[in-house]
Specification:
The structure is a single chain. By secondary structure, the protein is α+β, with helices and mostly antiparallel strands. It has a single domain, classed as SMI1/KNR4-like, CATH 3.40.1580. The protein is 35% helix and 24% strand. The protein is built from 6 helices and 10 strands; from the N terminus they run H-H-E-H-H-E-E-H-E-E-E-E-E-E-E-H. Strands 1, 2, 3, 4, 5, 6, 7, 8, 9 and 10 form a 10-stranded mixed sheet that branches. Strand 8 and strand 9 (135-138) form a beta hairpin.
């Protein structure tokens, strides 16, 4: 993943939001909340991630996009800003999978999304589960791999925003 990919992703998602938001209230029956795709993270925010060994793709992402808030897409999707990522409650997963992870996103239903630390592959979906001493534990079948890597996750999210903007169909990641 490179900076050009992230810039295209941001443009694509913003174009979908530009189509969706003007008619949102008529379509959905309530006013849209504020949707944002932020600009680049500040240097000090990026520095806060260094000690946690984030994958390179996550650093590339934050070099272009600080955070994403899509509260009305499905149950809501939120790609966290670096300061929130650095305050990590979950550092590893155990159960169906075992890995050291970096949690970088969530949805409005309590599900977390984590990328494997250092390698950046794969991206896991962590439904509500037990978290103790930084370890997420679950045998829930929804605890699963949702993408091969961060770009795959971002592609799925972009496609979900586009589908919702075009058809009103909600899809989960």
């Amino acid at each position: 993943m490179d900076a050009a990919y992230v810039r295209r992703w941001r443009e694509d998602v913003n174009a979908c939001l530009d189509r969706l938001l003007p008619g949102f209230e008529v379509c959905c029956g309530y006013p849209a909340d504020r949707h944002t795709v932020g600009g680049p993270a500040r240097e000090e925010e990026l520095a806060s991630l260094v000690g946690m060994h984030p994958p390179d793709d996550l650093l590339v992402w934050y070099g272009q996009v600080r955070d994403v808030n899509l509260p009305d897409i499905g149950n809501g999707y939120f790609l966290h800003e670096p300061g929130l990522v650095a305050r990590r409650d979950v550092t590893s997963v155990r159960g169906r999978f075992t890995a050291d992870v970096v949690v970088f996103a969530s949805d409005g239903g309590g599900t977390l999304f984590a990328v494997e630390a250092v390698t950046g592959s794969p991206v896991y979906r962590l439904p509500v589960g037990e978290i103790a001493a930084g370890v997420y534990r679950s045998e829930d079948p929804r605890f699963d791999v949702v993408a091969e890597n961060l770009a795959g996750f971002l592609d799925r999210l972009r496609d979900a925003v586009g589908l919702f903007a075009t058809t009103g169909t909600v899809c989960d990641l």
